[in-house]
Amino acid sequence: ARTVLVSGCSSGIGLELAVQLARDPKQRYQVVATMRDLRKKGALEEAAGEALGKTLTVAQLDVCSDESVAQCLSCIQGGEVDVLVNNAGLGLVGPVEGLSIATMKSILDTNFFGAVRLVKAVLPGMKRRRQGHIVVVSSVMGLQGVMFNDVYAASKFAVEGFFESLAIQLLQFNIHVSLVEPGPVITDFEGKLLAQVSSQEFPGTDPDTLHYFRDIYLPASRELFRSVGQSPQDVARAIVKVINSSRPPLRRQTNARYVPLTALKVVAPSGHLYVRVTHGLLFRWPRLLNLGLRCLACGCLPTRVRPQ
Ligand code: NAD
């Protein structure tokens, strides 16, 4: 069986992925399902059912701590990880004027350096064995900027640049790299973000910006989660496919509805098209935002919906 280490398994995509892998009918995986706070292991253990203690073990791992990473890897039999899934991540939304540099750094620390830290730890073993697969849960925001997600998108762009660069070298060692890019996923992620936003003042931010954030961005975001959000089960299934693939892709988007939007950057390398269309969808034709995403993929945009 291949040893798969997954970070951030107390909830959401990580929990689902760990369980799906551990319940593989052919028992092809030994899953080390890790989380920062073991007091939160109840939901994972319950979902794992009979796999617990057989094909799934739970271990403590804080991706922001060198000691925690070393300690976790030292407990893995043979210390060998065949598949690493960097899933742990945090969101951050809000006007940049109102966010502290310390808060921004904590997002980069988790989403970017957290993944880098784990990779540094498993890479020597993978290189020695001339085999391995590094999977990273990125986001469509690793491919395109989204209003008021500046820092989160930056952290995922960092991930994309880092792992695309590494992929070239690692091909030489028979190690695959895969970036999985979901759109909105219905997990605790959005709830945690909204809780953080509702209690925050964003000091130093002008009233227009606050209005755009609270009255334009937040409702549009909520509506997008509601209308095109995927389940963590769906995203986990897409990741399992990537792990099973004999020729793993460097990139895999999980939500077909986002493909046309991300393609705008490729179509017009100046970036104007992406920025103008996205601006228009938020400020000028808000009714098109959801319908657009819902229907762009299949080309069924209803004709009665016209820009205002
Ligand atoms: P989630 O909040 O349920 O899961 C994130 C997990 O990461 C949590 O269990 C959290 O405890 C863990 N975590 C945070 N900091 C950690 C640390 N220092 N060490 C170890 N674990 C830590 O949300 P999710 O949606 O399952 O998110 C999983 C991944 O998917 C993240 O990387 C996120 O950026 C990405 N993603 C989420 C969405 C979405 O809309 N939910 C969309 C695209 C990408």
Question: What would your notes on this structure say?
Answer:
- With 308 residues, the protein is an alpha/beta fold.
- 51% of the residues lie in helices and 12% in strands.
- It has a seven-stranded parallel beta sheet, sandwiched between helices.
- Helix 1 runs parallel beside helix 2 (42-48).
- Bound molecules: nicotinamide-adenine-dinucleotide.
- Residues 7-8, 10-14, 35-36, 61-64, 87-90, 110, 114, 137, 139, 182, 184-185, 187-189, 192, 232 line the site of nicotinamide-adenine-dinucleotide.
- The active site is at 152 (proton acceptor).
Provide a brief overview of the structure.
The protein has 308 residues and is of the alpha/beta class. The protein has two domains: 2-254, 3-Layer(aba) Sandwich (Rossmann fold); 257-308, no CATH class. The protein has helices at residues 12-22, 42-48, 66-74, 101-129, 150-171, 188-198, 207-228, 232-244, 259-267, 272-284, 286-296, and strands at 2-6, 29-35, 56-60, 83-86, 132-137, 175-181, 251-253.
